[in-house]
Task: structure prediction
Amino acid sequence: MVKEPNPQFAIEVSQTPGGETLSLCFQCGTCTGSCPSGRLTSYRTRKLIRKAQLGLEKDVLESPDLWMCTTCYACQERCPRGVEIVDIINVLRNKAVKQGVMSGEHIKVGNYLLQNGATVPLNEKYEAVREELGLSRRPANVLGDKKALEDFQKILKATGFDKLLEEKK
Amino acid sequence: MNLNKKYALFLGCVAPARYPGIEAATREVCKTVGLDLVELEGAGCCPAPGVIKSFDQDTWLAIAARNLALAEKQGADILTICNGCYGSLYDAAHILNGDAERLSAVNKILSEVGMEYKGTTQVRHFAELLYKEITPENVKAKTKTPLDIKVAVHYGCHFLKPSKIKELDDPERPRILDEIVEATGATNLDYRDKQMCCGAGGGVRSGNPELATKFTVEKLKSMKSAGAQYIIDVCPFCHLQFDRTQKDVQGYDLPVIHLAQLLGLAFGVPASKLGMDYQEVPAKF
Result:
């Protein structure tokens, strides 16, 4: 499927921290061959990077492939050109999220972070387990410290993370 | 042994809120080896290197910097018990401790809550600290009864990688974790896809759970066919992935043991204090 390319796209990616090495890829496919996700699905790392180089913005940012990477770094470790593939994927994902492409489940994780200061909330069941193990019911971090949670939330507001999620509701 | 340094225990989310046995075991083991821990009071999510960094890098860095600043204020280095926390905090420290421009951008955000990060905190992983500062020889010496179990070691991803900045071990054929595990007397089995990811990271467990399960089943199959009785890991999120997947996918019966829990067993800490019976697949001792 060929879509209209955005010639600025690759430049923008390369100028974002983490995206600097995009142009170094010469398409050998070592990444695809190393990818555990590609072994189990039709996701192809090499192809994703090529599309980004070519400025196929929509194709890259709207494809479910972008979210198949577990950030395991197998590709990045083996890349003979030193392409920081996982970091590039992160830059691409950030761009997708900014454009409003975010799954409902991921919005939920983002909201957990916003509400609890943690991606996993602590509930009564596990508070009881903690007590049985001789631990405090709630730990001394944001899970048990209201003031710390407020500070944490202020930072998320300062970076605009709350807005990033709101726009997708 | 470099144990004079002050270490602040960074709990993260999954360990205290889902696998508190890992937290309890860490505290017991640190006591046994003479490592004094301080609490990292007020710490927040690391935040998760796959999922939160995928959403917004600037938020990821600011939140990580807040945690680094909390440790710095106490004059402590950070000790993590999770590959995800290690991945985020180590990477963030690597960026901020060497880049004045990004540090100043982050401090602008931190000033909203009256904080500042100067760029001095070091981040250590429990397994790496143990290997370097306690050493496998001392683990062997402290082992009361050598463990008569067959195990499959799972390194996970963010412990050693990206190796370019972590420089801990060969990411393709690492040994450090194997050496600690072998020092407890456990039989350490080689298995296919040992370096493969558990499948949980990068927002895949939350966004695409079927795919995450496929990863995990590949690993479970390989471990089982090598003859493993237990999985040894160093990450509560891998731990959760291996444990909870076995609730839905039957037939493997492979309990997960975090390195801190394994060392607790070896050092004679009563199993009841290690919390392994609260898991979906309990490890009974």
Residues 85-98 of chain A form the longest helix (14 residues). The mean pLDDT of chain A is 95. The CA atoms of residues 90 and 162 of chain A lie 19 Å apart.
